[in-house]
Amino acid sequence: MAVFTGTVAVTGLNATDNPGPGVPVVRALRSSPEFAGRIIGLAYDAMDPGLFLPDLLDGAMLIPYPSAGRDALFARLAHARRTFGVDVLIPTLDSELPALCDHEHVLRAMGIGVYLPTRAQYDMRSKARLFELCENHDVPVPRSEVLNDPNALYSIHERFSFPIAVKGVFYGATIAYSASEAVAAFHKQAAEWGLPIIVQEFVAGEELNVAAIGDGEGGLIGAVPMKKLMLTKQGKGWAGVTIHDAPLMALARRAVAAMKWRGPLELEVIRDAAGGYHLLEINPRFPAWVDLSAGAGQNLPLACARLAAGESVGTLPDYRVGAAFVRASVNQLVDISAFEALTVHGERAKAS
Fold first, then answer.
1. I need a surface site. Which of 93, 170, 275, 331 has the fewest CB within 10 A?
2. Which CATH architecture has domain 7-114+330-348?
């Protein structure tokens, strides 16, 4: 396949203890001998750590928060196209997608390609509708309820056994062991992400994940499964390894087929002590460990960039079992001028 030479814009550069997927997406692109393009970082905060990693970006630009609305975002993307010649956009945060889904024609008119689900697909896999989706398509999923009133949690013991998972509509999950803990978690998640709140049956077991790209017709272009080896206090994977797991992959194929998903996604799954599989969430973007896919020989971000550019990639080759990652926290030393340009002008032509 020809070397990719386009300019790719990537969001989600908040590489903290709860990292966004942006830096791993960029690292996966940079790692491939088939990539000879430029990469522009799009950030919401001038202090996002991914903006300052050496040799990572060819430029950077601040963009408005999703709450500013679609018009503000599209105006900024048009400026990114004019300033940096952006050819492809890979958004990596859930909250960005509502403004982008179903507007691929607008972006392409700017000269920016994307490979994204429709808004109907995005909504179908939401935490609020996941139980219904899975029940209708024979995908195993923990029982859940969608709540807008915290008072309903005082009688939740009549329908669920504690502990339960209390989840925000976009991000975040808290394990609650009593009604009072559940109510506190409700208010915490609602304050950060709004309503509704999802209450889900808690399933103990081994945490598994699948990063994938759907072809929009019910098939998988590529998929890499991973087992978490180390978790942070927030429940985020700090180390993991690619595995062979036929039932897990079968579950992933059923879920993607049910949605006819188009674009990147991540499935979060629990395998219980009896060997049963339970789909907890479907995230509508790449995970923060997606560079492991490149290390395993199936470079999902590069495939996504090619697809967004209008290329055909077919079905990706098999991944390598036993590829592993371990995250590390480091102090990145920079000069104050490295983020001065972003805070003053909102963009920087070349990463430090």
1. 331
2. 3-Layer(aba) Sandwich (3.40)
